[in-house]
Amino acid sequence: MAQMGFFDLSDRYASLDAKKDPLVAIDIVVPWEEFRPTLEGVWRKPDSKRKSRAGRKPIDAIVMFKALVLSALYNLSDDQIEYQVRDRLSFMRFLSLGLEDRVPDAKTVWLYREALARAGVVEALFKQFDGYLARQGYIARGGQILDASIVPVPKSHNTREENKTIKGGEVPEDWENKPAMRSQKDLDARWTKKHGKSHYGYKNHVNVDRKHKLVRRYDVTDAAVHDSQAVDHLLMRGNTGAGVWADSAYRSEEIEAKLRDRKLTSHIHRKGKRGKPLTKQAKGSNRTKSTVRVRVEHVFGAQTNDMGGTLVRTIGMVRAKAKIGMKNLAYNMRRLVQLRRINPCPA
Q1: Which residues are bridge partners to 204 per DSSP?
Q2: pLDDT digit string (tens) for 40-72?
Q3: Taking the model in full, what pTM does it have?
Q4: Strand 243-246 relative to strand 265-268: parallel, antiparallel, unpaired?
Q5: Quick one: pLDDT band at residue 276, thresholds 50, 70, 90?
């Protein structure tokens, strides 16, 4: 087999461009260097705290961050990230790596995500990119749409007594002597029911603006938390529209009062009560509201169908928040490419 030369690699990249490699567009629109100070504050120790300058230098913080973005864009495990970067030219180019460069291995990817998760900076990175979106003209417009989606994790098969203990915030007694088993048990995820089916995991609560269909705020809870309990964290003041859309799960006197206090207009679906079903007029009003509210379903649909699904392969709330936050951030990066294509000069 002949050795690949520089021009052979260039030709391969040209053929990828001809097929409209989506990663090229994302790489162009995202201001990666703006994230560097935040990322290096976590990934690199200050010179004053380093014991020695010996040893191999850590992989560049932007390269590692891009690896996490790839993981979120395609819902890849850490082992899959390492393999795919080695195997796919499009991934290698996205990370600005040459054939001779060191590829982040699975353990390094895990350690990097763990560092970001423990430092709690993923939400800060998300807000930083939202600020960039606003500077580019994509400010929150047209009102706010609230919703939540269940994010599954691998099911944990516990006894009823064990689940009762976990819900009480404690660790089952016999787990203390089984550290290997304990490390694989997620004590923060919870069961919930939706449409008669049981689900185990977390919830991704989001605020999506009506105009641009970008995630503006998000919150992560266990799956048992009711959708309406995240409203305080989700509502924002910066949207140009006063309307708030949500399904009937968010309808309550308390939330209606909160919206009035913030001078926001409720377009939350009405719900019937036992013995008092919705009137024909109320049903028609709900259908009209659904034409706007459905835009948030497009976001969850993109994350589920176009971004490899939402299954989280981590243990615990801290890591789940980092993974789900990266998913929302990667969605916004991907959505910016679409918005630029639709309207290069937003008003």
Answers
A1: 149, 220
A2: 999 866 555 556 565 567 899 999 999 999 999
A3: 0.90
A4: parallel
A5: confident
Q: Which amino acid is at 158?
A: N
Q: H or E segment at 81?
A: helix 78-87
Read off the tokens for 208.
């999506």
Query: 329: which 2 tokens?
Result: 């951030």
| H/E element, 269 | none
Q: How far apart are CA 43 and CA 37, in angstroms?
A: 10
Q: Which two tokens stand for residue 177?
A: 């002597």
Q: Quick one: CA dihedral 78, 79, 81, 86, positive or negative?
A: positive
CA–CA distance, 327 with 178 (Å, rounded to integer)? 33
The torsion angle over the Cα atoms of residues 305, 307, 313 and 317, rounded to 10 degrees, is -100
Q: Confirm if 311 and 153 have CB atoms less than 8 A apart.
A: yes
Ramachandran sector of residue 14 (left: φ over 0; alpha: ψ -120 to 50; beta: rest): alpha
Residue at 285: amino acid letter: S
For residues 144 and 245, what is the distance between their CA atoms, to the nearest angstrom? 6
In order of 92, 167, 207, 259, the CA distances from 227 in angstroms are: 40, 19, 12, 16
The position carrying tokens 């529209």 is 241
